[in-house]
Amino acid sequence: MKQAAIPANADNGLTIGENAYRRIRADIIFGRLTPGQKLKLERLRDTYGASISTLREILNRLSSESLVLAEGQRGFEVAPVSADNLKQIADLRLLLEAHALEQSFVAGDMEWEGRVVAAHHKLAAMEKRMLAGDRSETEVWKRYDWEFHQALISACGSAALMETHGGVFDKYLRYQMIALSFRGDIAAEEHRMLLECALKRDAVRAREILARHVQGGVEHALATGTIR
Questions:
Q1: β-strand 68-70 against 76-78: which pairing, if any?
Q2: Which residues contact 140 (CB under 8 A, 6 or more apart)?
Q3: What would the pLDDT profile of 171-188 be if each residue is shown by its tens digit?
Q4: Can you give the residue ranges of every domain in the chain?
Q5: What is the CATH architecture of 83-223?
Q6: What's the CATH fold of domain 16-78?
Q7: Which residue in 211, 164, 173 sits closest to 86, CA to CA?
Q8: Which of 17, 40, 160, 179 is in the most buried spot, having the most CB atoms within 10 Å?
Q9: What pLDDT is stored for residue 22 in this prediction?
Q10: What percent of the chain shows pLDDT beyond 90?
Q11: Among candidates 74, 89, 90, which has minimal Cα distance to 36?
Q12: How many Å apart are CA 69 and CA 53, to the nearest integer?
């Protein structure tokens, strides 16, 4: 089972291999390992503390998630990015998240509402800091973004849907981090409206806002010129 990149902090209960997998995956998602970068096993061993054989298994696992390219005898490299791929990922994210939103709005109880409100509170506070010019904690901002969108769909009743959405969201997030894409007031207001829709159980309006939110993220990322 793949693990979403956002909550990828090291856990003392993890095996060396699982911890290395989470760290490498998060470093790809957050752009510390850049698109097209060659992944030399010896260097990875020094950085992540796993054996060569374990690292090879990890990179093949990440290849199955389309985050790494396995090049046969030439080794491994971080998967490249493209505008077409971003659009495909965004379409899939929207399809999954819109369906999960509807299910969650129907089944959500007071505990669910509390999770959504708490997640939005943290995200809104971080967005306020970024709007004031503080861009020192972009990874925290994206973690809170991830937590809010996961909270919105957390009552959907399907662990498989949640897991699949988490993997797609991570790939979408990767593009945002590569492009350093922050839409400011527009995105913050869309998050506020999604919260309002959740509390009112207005799934129709939520779908409209979500579509605007995801498409706006794509357009903003492409406008930076870093993705072609």
A1: antiparallel
A2: 126
A3: 999 999 998 778 899 999
A4: 16-78, 83-223
A5: Up-down Bundle (1.20)
A6: Arc Repressor Mutant, subunit A (1.10.10)
A7: 173
A8: 179
A9: 96
A10: 83
A11: 74
A12: 17
- In angstroms, the CA 95 to CA 93 distance is 5
Q: Which residues, in sequence order, are CB contacts of 73 under 8 Å at separation 6+?
A: none
pTM (whole model) above 0.85: yes
* Bridge partner residues of 77 (DSSP): 38, 69
Euclidean distance between CA atoms 198 and 24, whole angstroms: 34
Q: How many residues in the chain?
A: 228
Among 2, 31, 20, CA closest to 58: 20
Tokens linked to 17: 């291999």
Q: Please name the residue that has the structure tokens 């490249």.
A: 80
10 φψ region: left (φ > 0), alpha (ψ -120 to 50), beta (else): beta
Segment 104-128 mean pLDDT: 97
Nearest-10 Cα torsion for 212, 215, 221, 223: -90
Q: Which residue bears the tokens 């922050």?
A: 182
Contact 152, 196 (CB under 8 A): no
Reading the block at residue 8, the tokens are 């990828």
pLDDT in tens, 79-114: 999 999 999 999 999 999 999 999 999 999 999 999
In terms of phi and psi (left: phi > 0; alpha: psi -120 to 50; beta: otherwise), the region of 158 is beta
Token look-up 């985050």 returns 67
pLDDT at 219: 95
Instruction: Provide the residue type at 108 as one letter.
Output: G
pLDDT, average across residues 144-160: 97
HSE-CB for 187 with a 13 A CA cutoff: 25
